[in-house]
UniProtKB/TrEMBL annotation:
InterPro entries: AA-Vitamin_Transporters (IPR050638), EamA_dom (IPR000620), EmrE-like (IPR037185). It holds the Pfam family EamA. It comes from Corallococcus llansteffanensis. Signal peptide: none annotated. It comes from the Bacteria. This is DMT family transporter. It is found in: Membrane. Keywords: Membrane, Transmembrane, Transmembrane helix. Belongs to the EamA transporter family. The chain crosses the membrane at residues 36-59, 71-89, 95-115, 122-141, 147-168, 180-201, 207-226, 238-258. It is a multi-pass membrane protein. GO terms for cellular component: membrane. Residues 148-276 form the EamA domain.
Length: 293
């Protein structure tokens, strides 16, 4: 049991997950506000470094006592987490936050329905596919979406699917909080070279550093704590349905904090993918998802 698990929960599980979803997307909006100063890679590096410090201080994983089997679980998890964060931040630098999260959701959604032979699951695939078709920039119009941003968001979704798979193995070999803290170290090592080369960390000011601490807190430390508490009381199905709200919450966060306006068709795409994800969770056997760090 983690230290957080021994404390009396301040929130019941459903409000805790909803607050975690809002926290993650609010953190992403705050991070995007850092891009003009430190770049997407710089913001990703700062978030992971600071989140690593927070999680290591809180969970204190006994890294020196880990076995080879435990490291074999921690390292792939950290690599998947790092690449997922990097590609996601690079994508939201090019396309609206809500659309990036919608496209990213394709990864865990595909993992949820892969191998299924039930007709109902193919219906959810059609809903999700329709949403992706509505988002995809089929033309080269100046006001269209950046195709590279779309590809990067889909790449982040693929990393999310890998993250779920390797996270399941990690949870069986290392206590959850310790595993994420240790994995975050390798995520940081994966992204830091890109942050140092491609970011503009020399522009970092005390104000930007404080904002980066806020990003790490909102995007990693706070939602992780809330979701871990909720997962002890919610079924994976209920948790998955609540997480399906993320694309819509991301779109609202982009609109509220970044003035990113989606077209009616793009809002429809967000709704279709969220509906497909919730439907697949409700009617299928979904893999147990580690929280998005």
């Amino acid at each position: 049991m983690t230290p957080a698990g021994r404390r009396a929960p301040l929130l019941s599980p459903i409000p805790a997950v909803l607050l975690a979803v809002v926290s993650v997307q609010g953190g992403a909006a705050l991070a995007k506000g850092l891009f003009p100063a430190v770049g997407a890679t710089g913001a990703a590096g700062l978030r992971l470094v600071l989140a690593s410090v927070m999680l290591l201080a809180f969970f204190r994983p006994p890294l020196m006592r880990y076995t080879r089997a435990q490291w074999a679980a921690v390292i792939p998890y950290g690599l998947a987490l790092g690449v997922m964060n990097l590609t996601y931040y690079l994508s939201i630098a090019r396309i609206p936050l809500g659309l990036a999260v919608t496209l990213e959701f394709v990864g865990p959604f595909a993992l949820a329905v892969v191998g299924s032979r039930r007709a109902l699951d193919f219906l959810w695939v059609l809903f999700a596919a329709a949403g992706i078709v509505l988002i995809t920039p089929w033309t080269a119009r100046p006001d269209g979406l950046d195709p590279l941003g779309v590809v990067l968001a889909l790449a982040a979704g693929a990393c999310w699917a890998v993250y779920i798979l390797v996270g399941g193995r990690l949870s069986r070999r290392v206590p959850e909080g310790e595993g994420v803290a240790a994995g975050m170290v390798f995520a940081t090592l994966t992204v830091l070279p890109f942050a140092l080369v491609g970011g503009h960390l020399e522009r970092l000011t005390p104000g930007l550093f404080a904002a980066s601490v806020g990003v790490a807190l909102l995007s990693s430390a706070l939602p992780y704590t809330l979701e871990m508490r909720a997962l002890g009381q919610l079924s994976s199905r209920a948790f998955g349905i609540l997480m399906s709200l993320e694309p819509a919450v991301a779109a609202l966060a982009g609109w509220a904090f970044l003035r990113e306006h989606l077209t009616p068709l793009q809002w429809l795409a967000v709704a279709l993918v969220s509906f497909a994800s919730a439907g697949a969770t409700l009617t299928g056997k979904r893999p147990e998802p580690p929280v998005e760090a």
